[in-house]
Amino acid sequence: MIELENTEGFYFVGIGGIGMSALAFFFAGEGFTVAGYDRTQSRITDSLNEAGCSISFADDIESIPSLFKDPAGKERVKIVFTPAIPAESRILSFFRANDYWIFKRSEILGALSEKTDTIAIAGTHGKTTVSTMTAHILKQSSIDCSAFLGGVSKNYNSNLITGNSRFTVMEADEYDRSFLMLRPLIAVVTAVDPDHLEIYGDHKTMIAGYNEFIRKIRPKGILIYNYAIREHIECPGEVLGYTYGSDPSADYRYFNVGRRNDCYNFSIKTPHGVLGDIHFPFPGIINIENLTAAIAAALNCGVNEDEIRKAAVLFQGVRRRFDIRINRQGLTYIDDYAHHPEEIRAFIISVREYFGNRKITGIFQPHLFTRTKDHAEGFAKMLDTLDEVILLPIYPAREKPIPGVSSKMILDRMKLKAKSLLEMSDIPEKLDVKSLDVLLTIGAGNIDRLVEPIEQKLKKEAGE
Fold first, then answer.
1. What is the pLDDT of residue 6?
2. Is residue 228 part of a domain?
């Protein structure tokens, strides 16, 4: 157990990350001194500054505030880092050389999960949306919750939600086996498609990692998992397991899906009856599936049916998850975080289902050299389902280049004729607004920095 009683402050190396920043907001709200380093300024770091956190953008020991810089006082502080920070970081090296208490973000989350009834949402895709939906339903109900999210909820304009409840929603990240630090009461697993093979080596080992996470569920706890992955899941005997999905055999099954204007309506069969008359104004059939998982979790926390209906109709989404920026006659612009072939497939299917036969142009930034190497064929196959594709160079994140691995690997495998490879600096200038109908920006890297410039250009040329 991580001792917090005699701690005065937390220093976050990589404080601007979506998971790290949620912890920084939390500890700042608890009255601790919070500081940190990040490579670049962002909307998140601006918000952290406003919350009283001290942030530097120089990987320089001199930028460390005095509370954290004096090794004589190191017992009073905790250092938290993300695996995305390079090992050669000067700041992280200083803390290591002076034997500070240094923890991974997952270790801190694990310590917090021990103190609460945690609902941990895992999966190679969908976990941020399901986490945010689950937190929203609980927050709108008499049950309440706190939540550490991997995206910014548009309902609460934050990736941290605080409340007075025994329940805390947490994303359970499989990268670096971080989710093995958690001890949830309820766990949800959305998908186990091959990903992070640079960590696990192969798909079989990755699935074994998920089943190890499942064994972390507390005795008499609950596991909720997608019916489509049932053959991969090993539910412990002391845990109550439920499936969800559209299959007639799923324990929580959505059915009778209809749509009127921009709102879905549907019902869910549960182990205890039918929850009907659900109205959901958020796009994409995949999000009905995601909502079904969230509703299953919420029902097992004691949320009642009327509270679920109310929450569903009020859900606004997550920034960078099917994030509709413009939607008017003749022009739609949607931004999405999808960065795995299966995520892209689900995203494109949802766009096609929602917007019909309109022309769809996608701008895609691959994320990580290893993921591009492992999934170049899959990316090409999914992107070929669009009408036009613009590829950007790979966003490396924590990785160094791999010889021969580039976005051209995907481009050369694509059969689509309307394809090109551009630098980020070429966009949005080279976007021909007159040729656009539905525009998508897709990726988990710094493609998000194009969102506002693209949105501004589209609105300007439309005379808005």
1. 84
2. yes
